[in-house]
Amino acid sequence: MRIASLVPSLTELAAALGLAPLMVARTGFCVHPAELVSAIPKVGGTKDVNLAKLRRLAPTHVLVNVDENRLDTVQAIEAWPAAQRPVVVVTHPLGPEDNLALIDQMVEVFGRVEGVPSRAAALRREIEDALAATRPSQFVPQRVLYLIWRDPWMTVARDTYIARMLARVGWQTLPAVEGGPHGAARYPVVHGDEPWLAEVQQVLLSSEPYAFGPQHLDSARALCPRAQARIVDGELIGWYGPRAVAGLRCLRELAGG
C-alpha cells in the first residue's frame, strides 16, 4: 500500500492507526504528528493539489474529504489510467459522533495492515468516552458566532462539523442556517449588519484557517457588541479523528462544564 492524504486531520488519523510508514504524500497543511510526517513528500495544499507530483508518487489509496478538497481534484484522480488509478477514500464526518464511523471506514480499507484494528479499537473507546462526557444538557446554552475568516467575515452553518462540535456543549451557532451537503453555503459570509448579531453571546475567533490573533479581538467585539470575544484553537474544534478527544475536552473547559 502507498497512501496519500490530502486532509490534515486524516493524515493525523492515519498516523494514529500506524499507517505513517505507508504514506507517500501529504499536503503542506498536514503537519501533525510532526515527527512522523515531516519526511513525507508534500503535494501542495488541500485546495490546490499538485496532481502531477501526486501521480508520480504512485499512491494506491488517496484520502480526501468533501469539505476540504475540491471535487475536480477527485475527478482528475479518478480519470487516471486504470493501471495508475488509486482507491479514493472519500470522507465526510459532520459531527463528533461521526468519528466512530470514520474509524470504522479506515478499518474497512486498511484493516489488514498489522496493528490497525487494535489501534482503531483503542481510539474508538477514547472517542466514545469523550462523547459520553460531553452532553448538551450539562452546559448553559449560548448563542455563538464562530469566525473562520475575515475580509470578508465568514462563519459556519449549523450542519458543519464545527457547529455540531459546539452544539455538543449546548452552544448554538448563528446564523441559524444549514448549508447543505457541500458547497460555499456551508460557510456563510457575515456582512456586519445582520440583526441576529445583537443576539450573539460568544464570538469565537478560530486560529485556522485564518490565523486570528489578539489584534482581531476589537473588530470582533465591534461586530457583536454584547458578546464576549476570544481566540480558540481551530485544530481542536475543527479537526476530526484523534484530535476530537482533546477537542471535546477543550470545549467542556470553555463552556465551564
CATH homologous superfamily annotation of the largest domain: Nitrogenase molybdenum iron protein domain
Shape designation = globular
Total domain count: 2
CATH class of the largest domain: Alpha Beta
Helix content range of the residues, please?
A: 25-40%
Percent of residues in beta strands? 15-25%
CATH architecture of the largest domain: 3-Layer(aba) Sandwich
How many DSSP helices? 10
Radius of gyration, in angstroms, nearest whole number: 19 Å
Largest sheet: 4 strands, parallel
CATH third-tier fold name of the largest domain? Rossmann fold
Mean pLDDT: 97
Sequence of secondary-structure elements = EHEHHEHEHHEEHEEEHEHH
Identify the strand order in the major beta sheet. 2-1-3-4
Describe this structure in words.
The protein has helices spanning 8-16, 34-37, 51-56, 71-78, 98-110, 116-132, 161-167, 217-223, 234-238, 243-255; strands at residues 3-5, 23-25, 61-65, 87-91, 142-147, 153-154, 171-173, 189-190, 202-206, 228-232. The chain is an alpha/beta fold and 257 residues long. It has 2 domains: 3-132, Rossmann fold; 136-255, 3-Layer(aba) Sandwich (Rossmann fold), CATH 3.40.50.1980. The protein starts with a strand and ends with a helix.
